[in-house]
């Protein structure tokens, strides 16, 4: 009797332990059985006890804010080397913004006390190691940003505690696509995980360099590189063509710029040496900063698809020409900064889509006060809400330093200076 009852208990226990494994497998997330088993083991060892890591990190000038009912904990650019303690915040944050700090390692349970997080931004740190239990407890996390770090590897098991993860950014990490990465690669390739690990590429080994994790054949990861086969094999193998550098043609916004997602999508492409507007600006980008680049010519459909854009900064470029259709589609643009460029006039039609524009910065351009400037003045008169700034004539000499408005007013009075007799003789 006694024997049978303990047998029943043991069987029940075994069932209870197996059940989550079966569930996890059925969920088809591609997260390996091996990982689930190890997680269970870990949980059992750990029991209920939580050892909060009490890093004595100073939160520097971090700030806490509330935007449309969401609590943001903002420590961007605060020179932090570790995760601020959760007690730092008066309320449990949903968004923890740690971009542009100096964090190097994410230890097990690094986010204990942050269980209510839905978004975690760790981009542009110095992270080279993520321990398997680093994200333990982040069951509500949907967005994890790890781009622009120093990761050579990431264990798929690190993702297991986050069943709700929808967005994972890993690009611009020097990933070494070795055999240990195969379960991560498989997970990223599960169709339902279509926003996990997009754009991430292998940096090593040489034969996989530049390949996307999303596309790579997981079998190749564990293939021993055969020294006899390799030397020129790479170039001649039709199945594995040496991929030319993918960024040679048009620059791509995701890889050439920094994208911040909270509280709204903002793309920072300033100071990148760009000679043209990068492709692939995220559709939900609200702000893009392209200042301090070398763009000379704004081409048609440059911002195609970026239909949520409200602020566009093109200041401090060398723009001489703006094609008529280059700003088409920017129906919601509020602020346009064209200052410090080499513009002489705005071509007819350029501004036609900008129904909601209210701020237009035009200073620091060599505006030419002749007939070519009339389109802009005409458009401004039809859009009295728009407050332009810096619209001064640089030439011809008789108008240098005068406002364009004044020039046009004089023109309309029928007595523009260039119709008076030879003003050029006087100078
Ligand atoms: C913290 O201070 C630095 C430099 O003073 C600044 O660049 C950064 O934006 C600040 N961060 C926050 C979250 O206020
Ligand atoms: C555009 O960028 C310049 C240079 O960084 C900055 O001074 C200016 O305020 C920005 N304009 C807008 C509208 O944010």
UniProtKB/TrEMBL annotation:
The keyword S-adenosyl-L-methionine does not apply. SUPFAM superfamilies: L domain-like (SSF52058). The lineage of its organism: Eukaryota, Metazoa, Chordata, Craniata, Vertebrata. Residues 1-24 form the signal peptide. GO terms for cellular component: plasma membrane. The keyword DNA damage does not apply. This is Leucine rich repeat containing 17. Residues 173-223, 365-416 form the LRRCT domain. Residues 33-64, 220-249 are annotated as: Disordered. InterPro entries: Cys-rich_flank_reg_C, Leu-rich_rpt, Leu-rich_rpt_typical-subtyp, LRR_dom_sf, LRR_TM_domain-containing.
